[in-house]
Amino acid sequence: MSLPRFGLAVMAVSVFLTTTHWASAQATAPAMPPPVFKQTYGAAAPFSFDRLAERAKALAAKPYVPPVVRQADVLEKIDYDAHWRIKFRPEATLQIGNIPFQFFHLGTYFREPVKIFTVADGAAREIRYTPAYFDMPADGPARALARDAGFAGFRIMRPDLKSDWISFLGAAYFRSDGAFRQYGLSARGIALNTGLGSPEEFPRFTEFYLSEDAQGRAVIHALLDGPSVAGAYRLVIRNTDGEGQVMEVSSRLFFRAPVERLGIAPLTSMYWYSESNRWQASDWRPEVHDTDGLMLLTGAGEHIWRPLNDPARVVTSSYMDNNVKGFGLIQRDRDFNNYQDDGVFYDKRPAVWVEPTSPWGAGAVQLVEIPTDDEIFDNIVAFWNPAQKPAAGDEMRFDYRLYWSDRPPVAMNLARTVATRIGRGGVPGQKRPEGLIKVVLDFDGPALKGLGQKDGVKPQITAPAGVEIVNPYVLPIVGTDRWRMVFDIRSPADRETVDLRAYLSRGNAPLTETWLGQVHPAQMKGAR
Q1: Between 195 and which of 208, 361, 368, 415 could a Cys-Cys bridge form, CB atoms 3.0 to 4.6 Å apart?
Q2: What's the pLDDT band for 5 if we cut at 50, 70, 90?
């Protein structure tokens, strides 16, 4: 297990377990009007996004001071089971306008407290922690914490207080439940050196400032701090039940040290297996993944689909671009029958689309795929890596919009990739040639509707030098409007990775988005 994967895995498991049990543990709203709970606040101080950015800049000009974990021996005892038994009191819900906020308690997975403030009329006041916010068992280890221990994070509830729709918990992680009210992948404020041989750095949000704007949207300001960077963030967030969430994000970053691999608008997800690599898992379910592909809309307007893999080693793929129009980790398969899991509902996991709202210039969308053998590990990361590498003293700004929904808000007349299948090459019923790998792609969309085999639909396939494309052909799938592309590849025995590019065309015009697939021949050979 590599160091980057270990860091991701610990954070992903702890965020998943904690947010899940909080949602289930507090699923029942009080039947009677709750007793009055009075929050305690600190002194008011002037506040604005510009002031927060100046604080971040001043922080970055000084050496990093790591947080001091208080009462580590007590926090060690607040494991998953003990944390599950700590329940937020509904009557302690913080109401800011029409937005109800609740807080997370510290525990063994969340040892570093965050400061939380309310903002009104240009002034911020800290919300003082007290154990009275929480209902704890009489023998619970959390009772031994200091009375000013602090909060681990917060979440925004729906009006009936039965469920939340967004949570901020752990490092710079946050996530929403999308159109189907089902949590899945996470976003982060920033990613530093993900997928490299050196340990990944996890800056953390240390302070949050909560308010509501004139349109009824939640406004979250956050201060970020870490060994290499400090930053200020502003997120303006709207939830629309049945549609999902839209977040307007502004970030200002100030660097203490150079960063080798900078990840802007990072998304973290899980992919174990799907129809393309079913042979890699012995699990009873047909597919297990939060996300099945990376989708891109390039600065030149090309639509790209990159299906995900569970590789045998850490693999980083880079897609160079200039002023990318958007990218995201997408759960495209929405058919419950392809998962058969009525406990965690992978078919309802949100897709997240990143749309820059300021020019990002030259760089690359990077996809990091980390080996996994279970669904509890987040092993997929995607982000924008700018061509300009930050040095100590640099300031960088990035603005973007995040959509958490069932599908990206991208208009596309081209047909989409709806299945990627990879297996043994050759012809069924005949002796299989050694070293052949078969690739089968299914496409669906209006551009293909009504076309037949005599209408000039052609496969367009590109492979690296030394890789042979064998017997490519296309055909409409009987009884549907879908089309299938089939071809074999033969690659040198010592080639670890084969990057392929394919789409359907008619005349000189594309009919489908561009499929960018990656095949690992040695991994497939070992599975036979």
Answers
A1: 368
A2: very low
